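Pilot study result, target chain (503 residues):
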Amino acid sequence: MEVLNHLLLGLESALTLTNLGYCFLGVLIGTFVGVLPGLGPVATLALLLPITYALDPTSAIIMLAGIYYGSQYGGSTTAILMNIPGEAAAVVTCIDGHKLAQKGRAGDALGIAAIASFVAGTFATLLIAIASPALTEAAMYFGAPEYFSLMVLGLVGAVVLSNGDLLKAFAMVLVGLLLGLVGTDVNTGELRFTLGTLTLQDGIDFAVISMGIYGVAEVLINLQALLNDPKRTLFPVGNPLPKPQAIKRSAGAISRGTILGSLLGVLPGGGALLSSFASYTVEKKIRSHPNEVAVGNGNIRAVAGPEAANNAGAQTSFIPMLTLGIPSNAVMALMMGALVIHNITPGPQVIESDPSLFWGLIVSMWIGNFFLVILNLPMVGLWVQILRIPYRVLYPIILAVCAIGVYSVNNNVTDIALMAAFGIAGYLFYHLRCEPAPLILGFVLGPMMEENLRRAMLLSRGDPSIFFMSPISAILLFIALLLLLSTLLPSFKKVRNDAFIED
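Predicted structure:
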């Protein structure tokens, strides 16, 4: 009954004309971003972050959330029609989705992808509504030691569940932690890692590092791909409404993908990418009937499962960010940045201090999923036409928006130079196969970890045993240690590698 009252409050907030408009704008931009190869939700959120300064907090977070889960819908379009993942989580959709397009079943694949995303998004949003209040209540028992241990677990999880080499992921977390410490020490007033310049005395702005590593780096990577890659064939769509037989065969995969994505989305380092790979791995091991086409050769289940999983994972990744103030992936780190811009501290107090924002966001996800079905089934022909826009027209616009957005934060030209430097760093990270998401998580969590570490040590008068005297803190650190030790097991390494195999 209490959840129902909360949802009614959310309806009152989300159904205002302004918030409906920003919800539609968010999912529209998200679909556009998902359709355009190589841009991605992280880069787009980084680009639009400064714009949210002028918006109401509820409208801003509804729009940014719509961009994120909207991009999961749109990413399947280029994956199926052109064999190019419009968004990272759509990588596995390319494998069977494009094979279906080659067989003249692009409409079936696109339709199933949209239906799977809608079902998964609806279920995941319901899960957020049910689970969030309980987690918020539990978070009230958290003090400085518990929050520090939780952040340690979050960073360890980001390393263990990252897509790539573990040692490189660990190094990226450390780099992020160091970058987060740049600036003035709030306790002593000492300047740290400022390279002797006053420009960095206030630290590195989140918009600068996120736009550089994701926005500018993405442009450089795509320009290189444009030089090296031949033109791809754009297959005809046909009827985007899937046949009843395709829906029947996909029902089990949609259910499995939804449950798997909902669970993995909550984990640190999880979200849409891990969920889609894990779902594809599950579907490879299942055979629904003897005459079925093998997964990898145009199996409709291998489109339905990952598409359901990536959308469910995208939406449940909001749970730890909203209830505990811990971002589970790079997108949630950006969402946290948007809340902080509006002087809202993510965590358990949000549901009490600003319930209209919290519940308005949850209800807007249901509304946004409905908008997305309309955008991705009847209007699929429009997105196909957008695929014909030359990238040489897009990249100068993206770079200009990056520069203007970064400058508008502090009116500082140095920030543009820093953004360019981080853009080059992001380009190098790509070629070194270093995933930037752990760096962003380390950058966001670093200052909070330091603050809670200092508070805990002050409470205990310098005795580190305080982290083990609290049952919650001790359990969280024990889980983090188990995760680290599990990486040494050959069986874990095999499972982890298999989960991220693309073909």
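One observation from the pilot: The two ends are 47 Å apart (CA to CA). A full batch analysis is planned for the follow-on phase.
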